[in-house]
């Protein structure tokens, strides 16, 4: 009985380590997003950190337009980053979890 419990605890610890490793790897997964006309380009990582913003010179003349472009483009990039992050972390957690009857939160 205690052997089974120790085995499960080890599996849970392994799952936590896999999740942490996946979160660390997400720092290296880059998502590029551009405005529809290509005047604004942003890069974020899968941990939802902004890595770069490239603004075309013609957007610099219109502050309001630039703000709109930033909001739309960053939101698209961050949404994609969230999807990737959630999918990868859930997969890592599910892969490492022990088979405990009734505990199917990652399915």
UniProtKB/TrEMBL annotation:
Function: Binds to DNA and alters its conformation. May be involved in regulation of gene expression, nucleoid organization and DNA protection.
Alphabetized UniProt keyword annotations: Cytoplasm, DNA-binding
Keyword Cytoplasm included in the entry's annotation: yes
Any single GO CC term annotated in Swiss-Prot or TrEMBL for this entry: cytoplasm
Compartment(s) where it occurs, according to its Swiss-Prot or TrEMBL record: Cytoplasm, Nucleoid
Any one GO MF annotation of this record: DNA binding
Protein name: Nucleoid-associated protein GRFL_3527
Organism: Christiangramia flava JLT2011
């Amino acid at each position: 009985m205690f052997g089974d419990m120790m085995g499960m605890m080890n599996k849970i610890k392994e799952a936590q380590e896999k999740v942490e490793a996946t979160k660390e790897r997400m720092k290296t997964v880059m998502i590029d997003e551009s405005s529809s006309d290509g005047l604004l380009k942003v890069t974020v990582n899968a941990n939802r950190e902004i890595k770069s913003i490239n603004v075309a010179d013609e957007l610099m003349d219109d502050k309001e337009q630039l703000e709109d472009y930033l909001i739309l483009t960053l939101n698209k990039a961050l949404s994609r980053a969230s999807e990737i992050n959630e999918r990868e972390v859930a997969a890592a957690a599910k892969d490492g979890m022990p088979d405990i009857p009734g505990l199917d939160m990652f399915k």
